[in-house]
Write a structure and sequence with these properties.
alpha/beta, 7-stranded parallel beta sheet, 23 helices, about 20% strand, globular
């Protein structure tokens, strides 16, 4: 099957250049990728139910006879609506079709068909809207339904898959060792590929899915181990002396025990191992990650090496630069800021001084990893807000030196059960306590009817010279009853807050515009900032004490927690308002949990239970390979796959030998699109 990953999709009959481009929109460039593009769901024609047993709101299959010819009439704007009445031994049902001028010819009265679709209640009876159907004489089957795109239907994809199936060898080579297949009762890859697309029964589909989920999680687990071991080469960056006590004595505050512990873990990695440190510093909002990173930078620099500190936005990089230079004032450490907006002449000077070793600590955005930036002796690469940088960017920063130590920081709460998977190529240090004086943020759930009261509360604080945020889920006006930032801003700046300075910030603005707005907010020129989640990772504005989130039910726990973390950074008591009229039990439980706790890890665990992993893996920036069928929240399957990975590694250390050739190929394929190295 491996050769099919080299065979372009347009080699299939009926897939020309234009259709090939549509397939590429779905991430399908080759025949092999098409076969690994699994159906998102299925239409099951094998288990029809009686009409009197259908449940409104659910999809089902019925075998019924068309009572009389379909009738079609024209409705508004020239559209067509067609109705037919079908029956079986238990009752009658209406089938309705829209804008199908041929439906009357396709369905013949008196003939039995199998109909599949969503059932609704209509005029005291049942109705199925736009059902799929087939003549019962063609036999029962389970039909695959794929994620499609404009111009490419699920039927087009199904036909292409049928062609691809004909190109498969008589028996697909098996990448998983036989002893693993037998121990865990796993079907062959040959069975799984054929039956995941075209199963003959629900049982076959279940077995095929089990196999493919197991294989994907096994491949992920083995791949992350290889990624980790590939970074265990010896590094020339020799750190002999721990200078963290000296650094912490420079701070105007006492470090927490968690900060001291995390710093010791980082330094121990660098002093006691010949391999480069590769560590994640994970801490809740406000837990003091920057101070730990600065302590590690200080030690590396005092040992004669340079350090790089990369942040996701210019304004955040500037804030890090400002706070670090203030701390390092009076030491002999030379710091510099490198961001996209500085002049070409200044960039040139910085690059020269960096290359000559005149700069010890370089702080900046991804301008640091641009071509032409050379370090004399890079010993440590730090990235802030890890989830904003992919594997490629992290690797490119490290490539600026010769196997430098790596520290990545993240304030995104990740459930402990998933941490080792997401950051499987990293060791983890946790900052699980907040510095003294850090205020607990009081959080309230309010309905839209209390919005005016919330506005009054916000005004009281603005009148005292403090600031606030209001976050909306969308940028522009929409048909749904969802607050948009632009519309919201226009309304409140003209009405409720017309006597205040109100700003607008969203992701569609140019980078310079966004930075200007955030700078004005930071400097107090803007009192109230209306924004989208673009401020989820932002600068510290200690004067901001209120965060209001409109349509809070549309955000995940972790995102709400990140937004809430934008306030409570000063000495003033801070508040968060979650505005929602949602009535669902699960949604209300989530929002009430937010009001009950400020613990990011507890919130992340709850989010995983209620929402699944979407909040943690919705963004392709996290650097993990994309899962095609496995669910990283399926901890049972994940645990089984990790156990199998242990056994394979024990039997075949380093996955060496011909027996593991297929597994090595699968690992390389899974990780290829995230730019992971060390997978050959």
């Amino acid at each position: 099957m491996s050769s099919l990953f080299e065979k372009k999709i347009e080699t299939l009959y009926g897939v020309g250049a234009k259709r090939a481009e549509l397939f590429r929109r779905l991430g399908i460039d080759t025949v092999g990728e098409l076969l690994r593009f699994y159906p998102r769901t299925y239409e099951d024609y094998t288990n029809p139910v009686d009409i009197d047993s259908v449940t409104p709101g659910e999809y089902c299959c019925v075998r019924a006879t068309l009572e009389s010819p379909v009738t079609t009439q024209r409705i508004s704007k020239g559209r067509l609506i067609s109705h037919g009445r079908i029956f079986d031994d238990t009752g009658f049902m209406t089938v309705t079709f829209f804008n199908n001028r041929y439906i009357g010819e396709m369905l013949k009265s008196g003939r039995e068909y199998t109909f599949y679709g969503k059932v609704s209640s209509s005029h005291g009876g049942f109705e199925m809207l736009s059902p799929m159907f087939s003549d019962t004489q063609t036999g029962n089957k389970i039909r695959p339904i794929y994620h499609a795109t404009a111009g490419l239907t699920t039927g087009n994809i199904e036909n292409a898959v049928k062609q691809a199936m004909r190109l498969l060898p008589d028996e697909i080579k098996e990448p998983i060792p036989q002893f693993i297949l037998e121990k865990y009762d796993i079907e062959s890859l040959d069975f799984a590929i054929r039956k995941i697309h075209f199963p003959d029964s629900a049982e076959e589909l279940k077995k095929a899915r089990k196999r493919l989920v197991f294989e994907e999680l096994l491949t992920l687990s083995l791949g992350l181990r290889r990624l980790k071991s590939s970074k265990r080469q010896e590094t020339p960056v020799d750190i002999k002396t721990d200078c963290t006590d000296e650094f912490f004595s420079l701070l105007p505050f006492e470090p927490t025990n968690a900060q001291l512990r995390a710093s010791r873990e980082c330094i121990a990695d660098m002093i006691n191992s010949k391999a480069p440190m590769n560590r994640l510093l994970q801490g809740d909002v406000g837990s003091g990650k920057t101070a730990v990173a600065a302590a590690v930078c200080y030690t590396v620099i005092k040992n004669g090496w340079q350090a790089a500190f990369m942040a996701p936005t210019e304004i955040l990089a500037q804030q890090h630069y400002s706070s670090l230079t203030k701390i390092l004032e009076g030491t002999d450490i030379k710091s510099e800021l490198l961001i996209g907006s500085i002049t070409a002449a200044n960039k040139r000077k910085i690059r020269e001084r960096l290359k000559n070793g005149e700069i010890d600590l370089l702080i900046g955005t991804n301008a640091i990893i641009s071509d032409g930036v050379e370090f004399k002796a890079l010993g440590l690469a730090v990235t802030d807000e890890q989830h904003r940088f992919g594997v490629r960017q992290r690797a490119k920063l490290s490539s600026k030196g010769d196997k430098p130590h790596t520290l990545v920081m993240s304030a995104t709460p990740i459930p402990r059960t998933l941490g080792l998977i997401i950051y499987g190529d990293l060791d983890i240090s946790l900052l699980d306590e907040l510095p003294p004086g850090r205020q607990k943020i009081s959080t309230f759930l309010v309905g839209s009817k209390k919005r005016e009261g919330m506005y009054g509360f916000i005004k009281d604080y603005l009148d005292r010279g403090l600031q606030a945020y209001i976050v909306c889920p969308t940028v522009e006006e929409n048909e749904l009853n969802i607050a948009s930032a632009t519309e919201y801003y226009e309304k409140i700046s003209a009405e409720q807050f017309k006597n205040y300075s109100v700003g607008l910030l969203h992701g569609k603005m140019k980078a310079k515009e966004k930075d200007a707005v955030m700078r004005d907010f930071l400097n107090g020129k803007i009192q109230l900032l209306v924004s989208t989640t673009v401020i989820e990772v932002g600068v510290d504005v200690s004067n901001a004490v209120i965060m209001a989130v409109e349509n809070a039910e549309r955000f995940g726990f972790s995102q709400l927690h990140q937004l809430r973390g934008r306030v409570g950074r000063g000495s003033e008591k801070s508040y968060c308002f979650l505005v929602s009229d949602a009535q669902g039990d699960d949604t209300l439980q989530r929002l009430r949990t937010m009001c009950r706790t400020n613990n990011g890890f507890e919130i992340a665990d709850m989010d995983l239970k209620l929402r699944g992993p979407g909040d943690f893996f919705g963004s392709r920036q996290h650097g993990l390979p994309e899962m095609h069928i496995a669910d990283l929240a399926d901890m049972d399957s994940l645990s089984t796959a990790q156990q199998a990975a242990d056994e394979i590694e024990k039997e075949f250390p380093g996955l060496q030998g011909e027996q593991c050739r297929g597994l090595r190929a699968e690992i390389k394929r899974l990780f290829s699109k995230v730019g992971a190295e060390g997978m050959n």
